[in-house]
Automatic annotation (TrEMBL):
Protein's name in the database: HpcH/HpaI aldolase/citrate lyase domain-containing protein
Any one GO molecular function term: aldehyde-lyase activity
Keyword Metal-binding belongs to the record: yes
Keyword Lyase carried by entry: yes
Stretches the record annotates as Disordered: 1-23, 310-336
Length: 336
């Protein structure tokens, strides 16, 4: 269910959005007959200087105690991004780490999500100042840093998101999409407050230091990484192995004990649903953000089932073999 937004916020119509210089007025002189424009939850809205009509952000919804349900977009396809937004997900993670796309394809997905008023999070290919700068300039509501191994790398990730003197982010705010290309006059005043910073814990070293990572000022969420963690523990392709699940359960308890919520000095718990760990169960255990699907996984499952349905129709000799082989592969993949 989406949050309600103030009726005082409205997107200007195409006809009213064209600003023409009045007679005897230089076209280079600023002419504004509307309230300042602000970027909120993937769309522009007119607001007063006092901030009336501000829309809910992922951070404000987490602070209000909501559990947010999202999906990962690996395809980099804007049509699938738009469908995900229209379907009602609370957020969509545009994945540049394992997806084939980069900043240009991510930008088209962000525009599609904005049309569906759905917040976007960008997962970076690596935790670096250059990738963070380019990602933040196109205006996501959240950013996810992979392979954060300790408090120092978490602090570095936060610094990549902030302008000097508080950080290292390169400044082009008057002309980038994040500030509505400079139309959002007070972008510098609110961008830190509204940007959700997520650090992935997916190595054994990070698992040992998870409290320290969560305690870093500016880190909002600890994102669990069961696939990479299982590989680091020697159980590649076996994230459901008993030892991996025990480690994950321990990490969950320790992150939840940090009392996430910004001022409390802790971090929210975020993660992926798995075949052995459905999103409803994760919500029950205290996760604040749950990604329950991957776009390519949804399409793969639908495509495979469609072909199998045809192959195993009455009269087909493949019916029994297809069913047995699928069951065995699933058991092997998620075996403990």
């Amino acid at each position: 269910m989406r949050p309600s937004y103030s009726s005082s916020s409205s997107t200007p119509s195409p006809s009213s959005s064209i600003v023409r210089a009045p007679p005897q007025t230089s076209i280079v002189t600023p002419f504004r007959s509307h309230a300042p424009l602000r970027w909120r939850s993937g769309r522009i809205s007119a607001t007063s200087a006092a901030g009336a009509g501000r829309q809910a952000t992922l951070k404000s919804r987490l602070a209000a105690g909501e559990t947010l349900y999202g999906m990962f977009l690996l395809s980099g396809d804007p049509t699938l991004a738009e469908i995900a937004g229209l379907a009602g997900y609370d957020y969509v993670v545009v994945d540049m780490e394992h997806g084939p796309g980069g900043i240009s394809s991510a930008l088209t997905c962000l525009r599609a999500l904005a049309a569906a008023a759905t917040p976007a999070i960008l997962r970076l290919p690596e935790s670096s100042a250059v990738w963070a700068k380019k990602a933040l300039d196109i205006g996501p509501q959240g950013i996810m840093f992979p392979m954060v191994d300790g408090a120092s790398s978490a602090a570095a990730a936060v610094s990549f998101c902030r302008y000097p003197p508080r950080g290292l982010r390169g400044a082009a705010h008057p002309v980038v999409r994040a500030s509505c290309y400079g139309i959002d006059d007070d972008y510098l005043e609110h961008y830190e407050e509204e940007l959700l910073i997520m650090c992935q814990v997916e190595t054994e070293k990070a698992a040992m230091d998870v409290e320290a990572i969560a305690a870093v000022e500016g880190v909002d969420c600890i994102q669990m990484g069961p696939l990479d963690l299982s590989a680091a523990m020697g159980f590649l392709w076996k994230p459901g192995h008993r030892k991996v699940r025990e480690t994950m359960a321990d990490l969950e308890r320790r992150v939840l004990a940090t009392a996430g919520g910004g001022a409390a000095g802790g971090a929210y718990l975020s993660g992926f649903a798995m075949p052995y760990d459905p999103p409803e169960e994760m919500k029950r255990r205290g996760y604040s953000m749950v990604a329950g699907a991957v776009d390519l996984g949804i399409f793969r499952q639908a495509a495979v089932e469609d072909v199998q349905r045809f192959r195993t129709a009455p009269g087909s000799s493949e019916a029994a073999d297809a069913g047995e082989e699928g069951d065995e592969n699933e058991k092997a993949y998620w075996s403990e």
